[in-house]
Every structure is written in structure tokens, then in C-alpha cells.
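note to self: dont lose this again. the chain is below, predicted strucutre after it. 71 aa total, dont forget to put it in the shared folder this time
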Amino acid sequence: SVITAILTGSEKVTMELVTLEGKILEEIYTGQLTMGEHIFNLDLAKYSNGIYLIKWSIGGKTESTKLNVVH
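---
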């Protein structure tokens, strides 16, 4: 699976794969990113079918996006 983040400026970014219960399964990225498009590859083969969340924080603002894993 591919995750794309487009930033309008340089920001501190954190991205995690979490269960619906909030358990962190994988830290996708933590660090400073520059302005522009950034692509992250996520290997979902090790996770069971189901719904997960991509929890991301950019510049202190945190949001979650649903991710449906189907093999």
C-alpha cells in the first residue's frame, strides 16, 4: 500500500498504523519533512484482513484515516 503526503511547508510529521482500539502496530514515519510530495510504502501482508487507522500528525495537528486491508 502507498501513502502520499503533500506538505505546503516544512513540518514535523508522525504517521502510525493503529488498530481501531488505538494499539500502535507500526510506526510508518517520524521526522521532519520538507515542502512537497512524499511517498511512503507500507507492507500490509503481515496484517490480517480488517479495518485499521493511519494516524498522522503534521505540524501538531492530528487526524486519522481508515484503511481497509483485504488480501
